[in-house]
Each structure stands twice: as structure tokens, then as C-alpha cells.
Design brief:
116 residues, Arc Repressor Mutant, subunit A, three-stranded antiparallel sheet, 6 helices, 7% strand, disordered N terminus, disordered C terminus, DUF7344
């Protein structure tokens, strides 16, 4: 009888953690989560899109606010919702308990922009 762990048990993957890291791999989603955390966990879509666009201008000055809003609406916010990190009502986007927990556990920070 072998005392070594079986190959099967050493390859078990926590799909929830994988999903979380996949969602957090994108800087735009991290910017959105950080902004929500800084604003008591919620913001209107327009407010969130403007804030994310403003944070990204230093990194990618060519991205227009409209492009940021479109990608948030069609790609990033749905992915955050599917992962259970945010939820959306007609008026607000809010962090969920899982989103709050992920932000407490993982060092997701955004460097403040320099003021001109």
C-alpha cells in the first residue's frame, strides 16, 4: 500500500477560484471593482463608466469614454455578474457579498491618478 498521494487527488482544481482569477485578470474589471469599493459598494452605470475611463486615460489615452462604457456594458459587467461579484438593478451596479469578500482577500488596488 503506497503512502504517496494519488495522482487524481493532486489534480483537483477549485473551479470557483479559477473563475475568480479569470474575472480579475482584466484591468478594466479590477478598476470597476475598486471604484465600487471606494464608493460604498455602488454606483450608477454612467458614474462607473466615467470613473473607469478617467482611471485608464493615464494608461491608454486613446481609449474614449464611449468605448469604455460599451465594453463595460457588453463584456465586463456581465462577466462580473456571472461570477457573483456584482449585481445590477435599473439604476445601480453594486458589489455583492462575494465581491466584498474577494476585495478583502485579494490585494486589488488602483494607483490614484496624479492631478494636473
Amino acid at each position: 500500500m503506497s503512502t504517496e498521494p494519488s495522482r487524481e487527488s493532486s489534480t483537483v482544481v477549485d473551479r470557483s477560484t479559477d473563475s475568480l482569477f479569470d474575472v480579475l485578470a482584466d484591468a478594466r474589471r479590477r478598476h470597476a471593482l475598486a471604484y465600487l469599493r471606494e464608493n460604498e459598494g455602488e454606483a450608477s452605470f454612467d458614474e462607473l463608466a466615467d470613473a473607469v475611463a478617467a482611471r485608464e486615460r493615464a494608461e491608454r489615452p486613446a481609449d474614449a469614454s464611449e468605448n469604455v462604457a460599451l465594453s463595460l456594458h457588453h463584456r465586463h459587467l456581465p462577466k462580473l455578474e456571472r461570477a457573483g461579484l456584482t449585481e445590477r438593478t435599473a439604476d445601480l451596479i453594486s458589489l455583492t457579498e462575494r465581491g466584498e469578500s474577494a476585495l478583502e482577500t485579494l490585494p486589488i488596488t488602483v494607483v490614484p491618478q496624479a492631478t494636473n
